[in-house]
Amino acid sequence: MSKGAAGFVLGSVFGAAVGAVAGIMLAPRSGAESRAMAADAMNDAWDAAADAYEKGGSVVSDRISGLRPTVDATTDELRAKIDLARERMDQLRSTLSDNVAAAADTVTSTATAVADKVGAAVPQAPATEAVDVHVEESSEDAEA
Fold first, then answer.
1. Is residue 38 within 8 Å of 30, Cβ to Cβ?
2. DSSP three-state, residue 16
3. Whole-model pTM over 0.85
4. pLDDT tens sequence for the chain (144 residues)
5. Integer-rounded Cα radius of gyration of the chain
């Protein structure tokens, strides 16, 4: 430790000791009286803090209880809207399913009718006998 730092620490300790002695010597009351006053001040502060906590709790409770009916009404309204939306979706799903089934039937019947018309319009080629074809290798192909 350097001389400057050691002097600062020694001066701080000496100053604190002198301050403590001066405080004891110049105190207008005895130690017991001073401790009683400090305890009273702490009790008063504790009581004030407890009162403030209780007031704050009651204010919050009142605000929450005042807000609850509004929240409940909004929740009920939203639930009713959701139920209506679900019913509408079920109706749309049913209508869509019916429309798809009807379109599938129409497409199937139209395709069948077109196939029948095409089959009737195109004459059937007469059946021919199968011809046996035999390919022989020529000598030029074998050499290559």
1. no
2. helix
3. no
4. 678 888 899 999 999 988 887 877 777 777 788 778 878 889 999 999 999 999 999 999 998 888 899 999 999 999 999 999 999 999 999 999 999 999 999 999 999 988 888 877 766 656 566 666 667 776 665 555
5. 52
